Amino acid sequence: MAEFGVSTPSVGVAGAKPATSTGKPLSVVALRKTYGDAVAVDEASMEIAAGEFVTFLGASGSGKTTTLMMIAGFCEPDSGTITVGGRDVTRLAPQKRNLGFVFQQYLLFPHMTVGENVAFPLQLRGVPKDEIRRRVGETLEMAGLSGLAGRRPRELSGGQQQRVALCRALVYRPPVILMDEPLGALDKKLRDQLQVEIKAIQQELGLTVIYVTHDQEEALVLSDRIAVMRNGRIEQFDTPRELFERPKTAFVADFLGAANFLPGRVEQQTDAHTLVRLDRSGGLLKARRHDLAAGVPVKVAVQPGRLRVCAPDDGFCTGTVETATYVGSVVRAGVRVDRGDAPLLRMEAPAKSGPVIGERVGICADADDVNLFPDEQGR
Ligand SMILES: Nc1ncnc2c1ncn2[C@@H]1O[C@H](COP(=O)(O)OP(=O)(O)OP(=O)(O)O)[C@@H](O)[C@H]1O
């Protein structure tokens, strides 16, 4: 599976670190960039640990690439600071920051062979020839490209070209590698495969990686932590699990898990829970405890995978199954809720016991899976 020739150690396990990390910590403080009146990046701050895989995730135009380009040195910030391994690099030229880059366009030199492309960063740094030969050989082997060293980029597939681009970034062991949608041009199958390989190699070498994508699944698979960006701001910077289970805003809940939202009001606080009365059906729903006063209008948010079918009398609402799509291990269903608490509740149920179209059902959720957000519109 892992063509990079490394074992695939606990892929996707946040925080798994190798014994020796070649990465360095990176810190960004109050980074800001404007273009005329438009604010592209607004006071972005984050501390990234050595060996951590961090992803900037957001919709088009949210400021991901601008933030990455400021870290790389290709775009000058209006204000703020960037430090790598404790050294302030904010005003340094890109080549003086000693960072590796991999972009969506492979940007390989077409007239050079694979081996020459990978050797290039070492030649620039004046590394002796024998050493270059050894390190290029090792890196190509790790990427499963040893047999292709003599080919030119046009004689390679897209996936192979992207592996060469990755080798060229890895060969001089930069303490931080920046990747901007590196798999964006590849088909889904190849993308999935290279995600596993990039993660494996990052863990193996203990690299610090900052990765840009607008693909939520890719971000979840790869990252120790994800910075969800919106309108130039970091909306939440957290582990995939925290973002998914404890989103701090309705935007994050919707962006990461496509949450269901139901309008209601806080009814009562207990020591362990917050009780919510749904607006239209009057159903009572238990959420994990939030610090909200009785009477406050809220949006109740539950991820589709955390809703369950139960007996109509046992749920916080009832409805009729309107759609049911078999997608392998689960059935994705849409439930038309009585009295209009939500247009159509989206849920996932195990395929074996999945709901069928036309069935009358109750809907339940564990309190711990129910998040509340104050409803700013107030109603
Ligand atoms: N050179 C520029 N001149 C003017 N505006 C710019 C420039 N570069 C970026 N912007 C604006 O800054 C904002 C953030 O752009 P950025 O490319 O960082 O977003 P992004 O999240 O990376 O988007 P995408 O996923 O589409 O690449 C956008 O509104 C964009 O139009």
Question: What structural keywords apply?
Answer:
8 helices; alpha+beta; 20 strands; five-stranded antiparallel sheet; 379 residues; 23% helix; elongated; 2 domains; Rossmann fold; binds adenosine-5'-triphosphate; six-stranded mixed sheet
Q: Structurally, how many domains make up the residues? A: 2
Each distinct ligand: adenosine-5'-triphosphate
CATH class designation of the largest domain: Alpha Beta
What is the CATH topology descriptor of the largest domain?
Rossmann fold
**Class by alpha and beta content:** alpha+beta
The coarse silhouette is elongated
Output the CATH homologous superfamily of the largest domain.
Answer: P-loop containing nucleotide triphosphate hydrolases
The main β sheet shows up as:
6 strands, mixed
Give the topology string: H per helix, E per strand: EEEHEEEHHHEHEHEEHHEEEEEEEEEE
Q: Could you tell me the mean pLDDT?
A: 87
Task: Indicate the CATH architecture of the largest domain.
Answer: 3-Layer(aba) Sandwich
Number of helices: 8
Rg: 24 Å
Number of strands: 20
Work out the helicity level. 10-25%
Structural account:
With 379 residues, the protein is α+β, with helices and mostly antiparallel strands. It has two domains: 26-98 and 174-250, Rossmann fold; 258-374, no CATH class. The protein has helices spanning 64-72, 114-124, 129-142, 158-170, 188-205, 216-222, 240-245, 250-257, and strands at 26-35, 38-48, 53-58, 79-84, 87-88, 99-103, 176-180, 208-213, 225-230, 233-238, 260-269, 273-278, 284-288, 297-302, 308-310, 317-327, 330-337, 345-350, 360-364, 371-374. The longest helix has 18 residues, at 188-205. The relative contact order is 0.13. The model is unreliable at 1-17 (pLDDT under 50). It binds adenosine-5'-triphosphate (ATP). Adenosine-5'-triphosphate is lined by residues 35, 38, 40, 58, 60-66, 214. This is ABC-type quaternary amine transporter. Keywords: ATP-binding, Nucleotide-binding, Transport. One of its GO terms (molecular function) is ATP binding. Residues 26-256 form the ABC transporter domain. It comes from Nonomuraea polychroma.
